[in-house]
Amino acid sequence: MLAQIVLFDGFDPLDVIAPFEVLSAGAAAVGGRLEVRLVGIDAPGPVTSGTGGLQLTATHALAPTEPGFVIVPGAAGPVSADPDVVDTIPVLLARVGETGLPGKVRQAFGAPDTVVATVCGGSLALAMAGLLEGRHAVTHHLGNDVLEATGTHVVHARVVDDGDLVSAGGVTSGLELALHLLDRQFGPQIAHAVEELFEHERRGTVWRPIGSQPLPA
Q: What is the pTM of this model?
């Protein structure tokens, strides 16, 4: 199975590198049953992040119906600024909707063995493209109001697992997202082994729409 981490112009590097490293360690722990790729939306090649002009290279184009995970990062840059001078995070995320990514994510949602996952503003990019209405998700705390305005049910948790959609909050939550995906797919022993390797203890709650609902306070 594949873990495909999507690169787009202005992506946040930590949103990409944190899950890439965790999932790569997980791939080694399961004997190569998982392959981790950096992918371009339509083609391989170098893609420039929103942080200091850092570039990463997509080795493949996104194959949205392959079994596994399609992971969409957020963007990096100022939250507010003169849009004629610099691209802000909202502008970068909205621009994702003008690419071929929304159509490919729709294909991924339609594939029986593919999970769409997001880090930070990745969920907001998909929601602004009309893909998350009625779903449970989270984004960076600064964007949750906007996410809710798209018709998405915002859950204030570190990771929100809504079946074939798994989202994580702020930038560093990419670590928790990737560990949860390993736990969900391969079990807690694999996730724990990777936690020990990186000396990182998972933070926060993984919310899922199962079990009893709490009574009103």
A: 0.95
